[in-house]
# Entry
Amino acid sequence: KEIFYFKEVNSTNSVAKFLAKNGTDDGAVVLSEVQLNGKGRRGKKWESPSGGVWLSIILKPKISPSKASLITLATGVVVAKTLKAMGVDAKIKWPNDILINNKKVCGILTEAHANYKSVDYVIVGIGIDTNLNLDILPPIIKEGTTSLKKELKKDIDDNEIIYTFLNEFELMYEKFQKEKFEDILNEWRLLTQTIGSYVEIKQPFGKILKGHAVGITNSGALIIESENGELTKVISGECAIKT
Ligand code: BTN
# Structure
């Protein structure tokens, strides 16, 4: 598989999108030491100086577009397993943040290009705070963020993380293409801290839904049970776990 390595780009997702449109193969990886304009979900900026793993994977899966969102959940499983192998207790917060001790250490930004019957390409962007200096973050973000270095109290070898992650990713992607979605969801269920928790979900358009997260559907929607026992499926939103 091809790896494109950069010292500095605006966003590895943007580079990956350009490469995907121009015929780059399934499985190619774009890595950069620094991103000048790293992108987070919901149009937010993702701080990406040197000190983190910033990478994007180009995928051209032969699956129905309705299954594309499961790639994000599957990637969360791969990151959580990679971090656990490094010795931290990583957990997934629905839909796709990876937490250690309730603080975010990794975010995933998936951008898919599809029509109603097929997927052209999917870009999966992963940002892991390995040796990041947390003091550069705006205070409200810093509060909820951690780095592997901080958790493990030692310098982290980015290459080791990248190597483990890409190997695990390849195994997961094979399962994915064989449509073993149920296996992937079961792994996700074991690694999440969202199911079983009381949550508040801020949905698009600002509506807030409160209740117990009781499960996930086979297309990746979170199932919330509200006080009166009513069940709601949520496809997307910002999830806060209340403890
Ligand atoms: C989030 O908001 O939690 C998602 C953050 C995703 C960041 C990664 S870093 C590599 C890739 N390139 C980007 O511009 N964003 C993603």
User: Anything to note?
Assistant: Residues 12 and 56 are 6 Å apart (CA to CA). The pocket of biotin is lined by residues 11-13, 35, 38-41, 44, 46, 48, 54-56, 97, 107-109, 125-127 (CB under 6 Å).
